[in-house]
Amino acid sequence: MGRVGALWHLTVGETEHMEGHDFRAADEAGRRILVVDDEQIILDLLKRVLSREGYKVSTALCSDDAVIEVCNRTYDLAITDVDLYRSDGHELMTAIGQASPDTAIVIMTTNAEDRTVRFAREYAQGLLEKPFALDELLTTVRTALESRVEDAQRSEASSSLSSRLQAGVQA
User: Is-above-0.85 flag for pTM?
Assistant: First the structure.
């Protein structure tokens, strides 16, 4: 079974068993996620699963479309395949980070080679190795979003402290 077939088989089976799942729509309402992959079947599947969780999901089939999306709309999270057809996923993630520094990034890959793992540690909030289980996807998404919120709170607190210190120095 190919990589898409393995992911599709695994997740379709899980989706059928998720009818009684306690979806977190109320907790996640309004969170925008961009999913980037060069395989439409994966985009459709992830959009379906994440939308059922209450996320607002957009998709892009290529790097160019993904960069246009993050330049035109604010996203809380970008989930992107690193092994994109005719483009370097590492460059895409760098471009997303530059265009939208507050967007958390989760990397998907079929081959977690050293370069990708190092890149994920430095630039991303999560790494998913295909094929992955839906529970793993949802846990990684929640963790990445929580990490971004904590980073923003730390940054805001640091800015506030700097402002107060500077005001004290000027007084």
Answer: no
**b/e per residue 54-73 (b: at least 16 CB within 10 A):** ebbbbbbebbeebbebbeee
Cβ 36 vs Cβ 79: under 8 Å: yes
Q: What is the topology classification, in CATH, of domain 3-170?
A: Rossmann fold (3.40.50)
Kindly indicate the confidence band of residue 47, based on its pLDDT and cuts at 50, 70 and 90. very high
pLDDT tens profile 130-163:
999 999 999 999 999 998 765 554 555 455 555 5
CA distance 55 to 49: 9
CA distances, 117 to each of 17, 90, 102, 107, 141 (Å):
32, 11, 21, 9, 17
Amino acid letter, residue 44: D
| CA angle, 146 then 150 then 156, to 5° | 145
> Could you identify the residue written with the tokens 């985009």?
43
DSSP 17-55: TTTT----HHHHTT-EEEEE-S-HHHHHHHHHHHHHTT-
